[in-house]
Structure formats: structure tokens, C-alpha cells
């Protein structure tokens, strides 16, 4: 299984290590051609505005959208969650705009308000240690978006079809359970509900 | 139960800057240009290093008005500089909610003997270093991110290269050492034994290390990435060039794609003059900012 990590900026190494620790092959993605052989793609934490500039200049926006349309799973953490969202609170335009949700950036405050907390996540039997850094959260989950975790009333982890997104940084802890969840989505891709399937429900 | 200001949160914030460019800005307008160009953060300060060098006098924390305007102008993280050992400047910046403090030798030190005890703060700190001993001491005090000192405001990359090569060579040495050699290395380097054990175990420094102090062109930024920097700080290089917007964009792109030489050639074309720059031999010992702090 080949899993790409978008490597324009941010916590690339940490995600690659998590992918390898789970037994898959990690591929660094810097240009459109790097997407060709992948089974899934991770959008890492970093600065979403900087990543977007680099996506545009590397002419990656359409290839990333096509990758999403092809039904191959994508996992966005923090800035990656912002990239996936269909709408961004207070901004006119979204980035990839592939996951039906509205995300608010920096919604827990500035760096001094960044925190660690243990989360209860649907499907995991023990709490997950989460690191929130100037984190966003999901203010609106669209139809078919499955909420997997809320923290203090805010949605911080959700799944929709082939997309998985979270507010926090699983890549900064040694806990690979969310990466395993994502790799499970990649492995069982044909079983994942599609957006069309959701809209029929 | 949630916990703020932990090492993981402070160091993690720097991890999110990796592969990025942090730009010095002296007002909100420059901050917007930096953000639009793709900077991962901006550093608010009163004067860029080359102006500090030229104008002389005591360089201090920026007027809080400037920092506040920068914070209101952009959504990316805002860093700000405090003088070495100036507890109150650092506390003021923390109270204002800046995202990172640079305890910086670019400003005139407030204390020539003691650095801030950075472990005491919720806000994370970045500090300069020229070798693994300085790196160890700053991390020991609680720095969550490092950068090379280089020689700020010169537009000359030579000192940043020297410092990054020095730190990396020392890290490689520590990794290659037998465990029984670490205590003697700790004595010789002025680094704690525990720190060296951690470096040996990880095979790298325990925090992100950026390059700073003399980066003036896209190729300079790419060179520092090639040598193993996690990202770059650009001080005078952008807003002292003739086309700041284009310089800023080109440096951001060259940093992300530092081994794409065809791209760097394209980015560097017709950029116009970079900042003029200075030869090291023309800078007297007393004017070398890197000699401030130990």
C-alpha cells in the first residue's frame, strides 16, 4: 500500500514515520506526477495559507481534486482539515473543497491557548492523546458526515466517504490508531460509502 | 482535562512551521505582503537587522502598537523579538498573545550573563545558536525551537552556513560516539549529559532548527534547506530588496522545492538587486551580533 504525504510544508516527516510504522509505504508528494501510484494521501499539519500558495504555484489544485474525485481516501490533520473543507468560516473561497463541512480556523485561540487533551473517539476503546495547536474545528458537518469525536461541544474528528479529517495532530504523538483507521479505509476502499450514496440516504 | 503550554504543544508549533519561511516585518502592510507570498509566520520587530546595524543605538522590543497591528492584519502566526534576558519584554509579548517569542541577539541584550528561563512561560521561544553547546543550553532553559545565529542584517550567508554545518557535524559526532564518551563530550561542549543522550537516541536535535542570519536570495534559502535546515527566517532580505513581493514569493517557493534547480533558476530570473550585503571582514568584533550571548 502506497500512501502519499503532501510535502509542500509542515509536519511531513512525522506522518511518513507513522505510515511506515503501520506497515505501509510513505511517498513524498511535491508535484502532480507524484500522485500517480498512490492508494491514499495525507494532508499534514502546517500553515494552510502557505500550503495553498504552494499548491497553486505547483499547479496541484486540480490534480488533488481529481485524486479526491477518484475515490481514493484522503486524511487531513489540522491545516489538512482546512484544505479538505467545502467552506471556511469567514473566508470567501475554500481550498480543495471536497468534504462537506464548514471549518473555522484558529478557533481555539492563539498559540498560548494551544493544549493537549485526551479524547474519546468513536470506535476506539481507550482515550486518544491529542495535541491541538492553533487548531481549527468543524462548525458544520454536512449530510453524510459522520462525527467521530467532539471536544467541549466542538467537532474535532469526522469522516465522510473516503475523507477523514481532524483538528489535532495525531502525527505528534506515538499513537498510530488514527493512521491505522485511515489505512483501513484505504484497504477497504470499495466498501466506503460515496458522496452520491450518502445523498440518497 | 486539558493542559496548555506543554513541551509537546510548544515544540509542535515549530514542527508545523517546517519547510516554511518566517519573514521579518515592521508594520501591518509588510505582514500582509508576507502572508500573501506564503510565509508560514511573520516576525514583528521595530527595525530590520540591517537598519539596526546602520542606525545603531539600542534595539528593543517593537512598540506594542506595531505588534498588535501585525496580529490583526494576518491569520498566520505572529512572532516577536524580545531582548536577551529581558523578562518584562517577554512577559508583555506573552500577555499580548504573540504566538512565539524570539529571544534574539539582533536586539541589544538586556542581560549579558543570563538568558530567560523559558520553561516558566506558556508562550514558546526560539533562540539562536552557533553550535551544539549553545543549542543545549537554550533548550535546557526551555527554548522550543532553534535557529542558526548567522550574522543578521548582512545579506551574507557565510555565517549561517558555518553555524548550521557546525551544529550538524556535532550532532553526527554525538550519534557516532560510544555512550561512555558522552560525559566528556558534555564537559567539552558545555551541553548537559542528558541532552547529549537524547540527541544520540533521536539521531537529531530534539527541536526544529531553522536557518537565519544572512539569507538574501532564493538560492540562499534553498542552500540552507540543502544543508539540513528545517526552514528559514528571512530578515532584511525581503523588504530591503527592490521587489519585496516577488522576492518573498520566490524565497517561499525555493524553500519548498529546494532541490528543483530548474525552478530556482526560473524564480531567480529578473528579480532585481537583492539587498546589498556586507563582507564579514568589514564588521568589527564589537559589531558582530552573533557574539552576543553564549
Automatic annotation (TrEMBL), chain A:
Highest taxon listed in the record's lineage: Bacteria
Pathway recorded for this protein: Cofactor biosynthesis; pyridoxal 5'-phosphate biosynthesis
Gene Ontology, cellular component aspect: cytosol; glutaminase complex
SUPFAM superfamilies: Class I glutamine amidotransferase-like
EC number: 4.3.3.6, 3.5.1.2
Record's catalysed reaction(s): L-glutamine + H2O = L-glutamate + NH4(+); aldehydo-D-ribose 5-phosphate + D-glyceraldehyde 3-phosphate + L-glutamine = pyridoxal 5'-phosphate + L-glutamate + phosphate + 3 H2O + H(+)
Family: Belongs to the glutaminase PdxT/SNO family.
Subunit text: In the presence of PdxS, forms a dodecamer of heterodimers. Only shows activity in the heterodimer.
UniProt name for this protein: Pyridoxal 5'-phosphate synthase subunit PdxT
Organism: Planococcus maitriensis
Classification of source organism: Bacteria, Bacillati, Bacillota, Bacilli, Bacillales
From TrEMBL, chain B:
A Pfam short name: SOR_SNZ
Protein's UniProt keywords contain Lyase: yes
Catalysed reaction equations from the record: aldehydo-D-ribose 5-phosphate + D-glyceraldehyde 3-phosphate + L-glutamine = pyridoxal 5'-phosphate + L-glutamate + phosphate + 3 H2O + H(+)
Transmembrane stretches, start-end: none
SUPFAM superfamilies: Ribulose-phoshate binding barrel
Residue ranges of every copy of the PdxS/SNZ N-terminal domain listed in the record: 7-212
Keywords: Lyase, Pyridoxal phosphate, Schiff base
Active site: residue positions: 81
Alphabetical list of InterPro entries matching this protein: Aldolase_TIM, PdxS/SNZ, PdxS/SNZ_N, RibuloseP-bd_barrel
Pathway assigned to this chain's UniProt record: Cofactor biosynthesis; pyridoxal 5'-phosphate biosynthesis
Binding site for D-ribose 5-phosphate: 24, 153, 214, 235-236
Single GO BP term: pyridoxal phosphate biosynthetic process
Catalytic activity, EC: 4.3.3.6
Binding site for D-glyceraldehyde 3-phosphate: 165
Coiled coil: none
Catalytic EC class: lyase
GO molecular function: pyridoxal 5'-phosphate synthase (glutamine hydrolysing) activity
HAMAP family named among the record's database cross-references: PdxS (MF_01824)
PANTHER family, A to Z: PYRIDOXAL 5'-PHOSPHATE SYNTHASE SUBUNIT SNZ1-RELATED
Function of the protein: Catalyzes the formation of pyridoxal 5'-phosphate from ribose 5-phosphate (RBP), glyceraldehyde 3-phosphate (G3P) and ammonia. The ammonia is provided by the PdxT subunit. Can also use ribulose 5-phosphate and dihydroxyacetone phosphate as substrates, resulting from enzyme-catalyzed isomerization of RBP and G3P, respectively.
Record note on quaternary structure: Homohexamer and homododecamer. In the presence of PdxT, forms a dodecamer of heterodimers.
Family listed: Belongs to the PdxS/SNZ family.
Protein known as: Pyridoxal 5'-phosphate synthase subunit PdxS
Lineage, broadest ranks: Bacteria, Bacillati, Bacillota, Bacilli, Bacillales
Gene name in the database record: pdxS
